[in-house]
Each structure stands twice: as C-alpha cells, then as structure tokens.
Amino acid sequence: MNEKPLPRVTALTRPFWDAIQREELHLQRCDECSAWVYYPSAWCRACYSARLTWTPCAGTGSVYSFSIVHYPQSEAFAADVPYVLAIIELTEGPHLMTNLVNCALDDVRIGLPVRMSVEARAGGFKVPQFEPAQRSGRQATPL
User: Fold this and answer.
1) pLDDT at res. 135
2) Which of 19, 45, 64, 118 would bridge with 89, disulfide CB 3.0–4.6 Å?
3) Backbone angles phi, psi at 126, to 5 degrees
C-alpha cells in the first residue's frame, strides 16, 4: 500500500469504482443510441438521453498516446518515476487515461495491445492501470 491519492467516489461514479474493486471494468452505455459514455455522466454526450446503463467492458485495448513522466506531479508519485501516463483506446472505443505498468519503457509504443490491471492503494482501494496484453519478460528501465 502507499499514500497515493484516492478518487472521490460519488453517487454517479460509485458503479464504476465498485466494478474496479471487483477487478472489472464497467462503463455507461446509452440505451437510446448505444454510445459509450466515459467519464461517468448523467446523460449521453451523443444524444443527451438520460437512459444510461452500466455495462461490462472487456478491459482490453491499445495505447492511443503516451508520455513518460520524469518529474512527479506530487511526492506521492516520486518513487514511481519514470512512469508511463497513457491514453488507452478501449476495445469498445472510449479513451481512458491511466498508467501503463509492467512494461519496459523501450517497449511502449502507439498501438501496443494492453489489458486492465489494478493498483491497490490505501485501505486496499483499487484503481485501474493497464499493462501489456503479453508481457515481454524485460524489466522496466529508465530512459
């Protein structure tokens, strides 16, 4: 466990976080137009319907974009540098910003297939991370 910040769980975001605690990924999907909705919202961004259903996702995707962080945003992340902050394009289409873990920095690339994993923080609270779908066996090395 570590002292990294925990998300603020609200009534709107609770279904997302409850699924993550089970190591599952659930996102909202519009019952009217079938659009995926992420970040959690009270309405669909495509058609403005309020009829949204929390729907299981595969928890897979690919690296859409990334940055290697050498200077942490706070001391809580100092032990992790360098680390990869990535935008993951989920198999279902939405984009999710997260960390890419268990990956040598030299192996990070746009299009890299990934799968969801979790990081346990204070009190065992889990947050989503992503890792290569197939691990290379190489250790992460600083640039």
Assistant:
1) 62
2) 64
3) -100, 140
* Torsion 22-86-84-114 (CA) sign: positive
Q: Which domain holds residue 41?
A: 10-57
Positions of the chain with pLDDT lower than 70, given as ranges? 1-2, 135-143
Tell me how far apart the alpha carbons of residues 52 and 13 are, in angstroms, rounded to a whole number: 13
Query: Residue with structure tokens 């925990």?
Result: 6
- DSSP-derived 3-state class of residue 55: strand
Distances (CA, A) of 70 to 65, 84, 138: 17, 9, 20
68, two tokens: 């290697």
Residues 71 and 93 in one domain: yes
Cα(82)–Cα(84) distance, rounded to whole angstroms?
7
- Number of structural domains in the chain: 2
Same domain, 52 and 70: no
- The answer to the question of residue 87 being in a domain is yes
Spatial CA neighbour of 128 closest among 60, 43, 55, 37: 60
Is 68 found in the same domain as 53? no
What are 127's strand-pairing partners? 119
Question: Which candidate, 68, 77, 91, places its Cα nearest to that of 127?
Answer: 77
